[in-house]
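Exam revision sheet. Question 4 asks you to relate a sequence to its structure. Input first:
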Amino acid sequence: MRRQIRVVLDHGARWFGVLRWLEARMQAGLTVLTYHRVLSEKQCEGYPFPSLVMPDSMFAEQVAWLADHAEVLPLSAALDALNRPRSKPLVAITFDDGYWDNFEIVAPILEAKGLRATFFVTSNFVESGELMWFDLAVGAVRKATDDALLSAARAHEIVPPTAREIEENRLRAWIEALKLTPHQRRTAFVEQLAAGDDGAKSGALYRPMRIEQVAALARRGHEIGSHSASHEILPLATDAELEEVLRESREKLQKWIGAPVPGFCYPDGSHDARVVTATGRAGYRYACTTEPPEGLHPRDPLRMGRIDITRTRVTRPGGAFDLVAFRAEVCRLHEAVR
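Answer key, structure tokens:
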């Protein structure tokens, strides 16, 4: 019902010229879009984090519209262009994490339209080839019984989700609880649940890009930014750990691509004043959050808001892509009525 109402509002806004007015207003500032993964329709089915994946056909339609109606630049170049006149909205496309599809699926779709994006790469993920902690945790939680999960949580001093949270969405409840857990205890929890399961640490769908692919993206004009070393939840880190994470990931990426790494993206969007200060001190020019933008101009380059483009927000109730809904998301109409 909510999506049906949204469709009516979106198309009403298009009919009465509201979308065009909001899109023209975008020319005064910068719009930063967030994506994570682009996969085939079949690979998207049953994906454990539906909000993080977009079907390739839908992404191609979004890119085609942006190529015709916006000036799309990597984020650093977009920040440089903020103060010059332009006839189209200024847009930056960003991808978080560094999965294989960013190179094999996303980049070719963008490049076919002459566009370049910013890819925030988790350096240890790419370097080791091992799955992200949350992808490992998904497999462990899905296979474990409720008793096994609670037993492991007690053993590693992890606050479990409430019964109500588990009833609403068991997988999401446990992943959210683990996000709030220091990484050593979280790692021990997952390893205990996955003990004896030889397939727990494998998974072609969740593999990262390779180092040479990250470097190739940079050579082809895309921007590479840091997404930390191992997707740590930074407010949980000590001062020393925080400094190391920010330095290590940047140094590795710069070595791989042979160029500066100007930007950072807070893993899971988690940040506080201490993390922001440390990020600036580490020499990053800008840093992105997962929060919506505040106004048309970035107020603080180390707390840049972005628009999260998710499948449910750009499709009709039956699941078909709706270009008008995409336009409404990009111009922030949806944000205004949410």
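Marking note for examiners. Residues 2-129+214-337 form a domain with the TIM Barrel fold (CATH 3.20.20.370).
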